[in-house]
Amino acid sequence: MQKKKSRWYPLHFENIQQIELLVVDGPPEGTCSYARYPAVPALHERMAADVEVWIDDANRQDEIDICKRWAELYGFDLEFFRWKKA
C-alpha cells in the first residue's frame, strides 16, 4: 500500500497552553508516511519547558525516525521504553 502525503488534525487549540504531557497516538500509521510527526511542530509553542512527549508504537521505524527528528529540532532528551502487552 502506498502511503499518502502527510496531513494532520485540524487545529483547535486556542485555549490550550503549558502542555506538560503530550501523548501522540494518531493518526494511524496507514494514513501517510510519518503520520504522527506534525504533533510536536503544531503544539511546540504551547508546551511547558519541562514537557514530556510520549508516542505510541515507538518500536516502528517511522516513529523512531520521528522521535529522533523531534529530539534534534527541539532539544528533547530521547529515551525508548520496551513494553509488552499483557
Overview of the molecule:
- The protein is of the alpha+beta class.
- The chain has a domain at 19-74.
- It contains two helices and two strands, in the order E-H-E-H.
- Strands 1-2 form a two-stranded parallel ribbon.
- Strand 1, helix 1 (39-43) and strand 2 form a beta-alpha-beta unit.
- The model has no long low-confidence stretch (mean pLDDT 88).
What secondary-structure arrangement, pairings included, does this model have?
Elements: E1 19-24, H1 39-43, E2 47-55, H2 61-74
Parallel strand pairs: 1-2
- Mean pLDDT over the residues: 88
What is the succession of H and E elements?
A: EHEH
Structural class: alpha+beta
Strand order of the largest sheet: 1-2
Shape: globular
Low-confidence stretches: none
Q: Can you count the helices? A: 2
Task: Tell me the distance between the termini.
Answer: 30 Å
Q: Report the helical percentage.
A: 10-25%
Gyration radius, rounded: 13 Å
Largest sheet: 2 strands, parallel
How many distinct beta strands?
2
Beta strand %: 15-25%
